[in-house]
Amino acid sequence: MSLEPTPADPQTPALPMPPADVFLQFLVNLVNNGGQLESIGVTLQMGGMLVSGSIVSGAEYFDRFAASFADSLSDMDPQARQSVRTSLAELGDVFRLPQPAEPLPNYIHLDDALFFTADGTPIAGQPTLWRGRSSAVDGFILGRLQSE
Predict the structure, then answer these.
(1) What is d(CA 43, CA 32) in angstroms, rounded to the nearest whole number?
(2) What InterPro entries does this protein's entry cite (predicted)?
(3) 0.90 cut: is pTM over it?
(4) Residue 93 lies in a domain
(5) DSSP 3-state assignment of 19?
(6) Residue span of the structural domain in which 50 resides
(7) Residue 148 lies in a domain
(8) What CATH number does residue 34 fall under?
(9) Selection from 59, 31, 27, 61 nearest residue 44 by Cα
(10) Whole-angstrom distance, CA of residue 134 vs CA of residue 148
(11) What is the rounded distance in angstroms from the CA atom of residue 82 to the CA atom of residue 89?
């Protein structure tokens, strides 16, 4: 017996889709809590494309993003650049505390992310930091794809 509505029984309610894969969110929480796991290699299937990289903690993501962004502001004076860097890095402070089991994380952070078409063809680009909603992930595998 299926719980999906059928043409013969249009009144049968469908089960709601979960907002995100709880197992993927659990893996993100493991990395966010630091300790033994600093990163996990994954390939995410998202809306017809693949994103492959290493899950890193939110703190690591914001630290690296802040440094990269501030370094790109070469026209700013050093003090202003440092202020921008500090402000952006502070966004990761919430991840420096132990993360509770609930609520599960809404975002996943990847380092060295590469992008591929659905058939695995690399999309040109350098490995980069990437942040996305865990609810937007259609599926995932452990392990990273490599561009040729």
Answers:
(1) 18
(2) GvpU-like (IPR049644)
(3) no
(4) yes
(5) coil
(6) 22-142
(7) no
(8) 2.30.30.100
(9) 27
(10) 27
(11) 10
Tokens (6 digits) for 120: 């695995």
Q: What is the pLDDT of residues 30-41, one digit of tens each?
A: 999 877 788 999
The domain total for the chain is 1
Three-state secondary structure along 39-58?
A: CEEEEEEECCEEEEEEECCH
> Tokens 């890193």 appear where?
56
pLDDT 10s digits, 114-127: 999 988 889 978 99
User: 3-state DSSP call for residue 20?
Assistant: coil
Q: Is residue 12 part of a domain?
A: no
For tokens 């993501």, name the residue: 61
Residue 45 covered by a domain: yes
Q: How far apart are CA 132 and CA 109, in angstroms?
A: 7
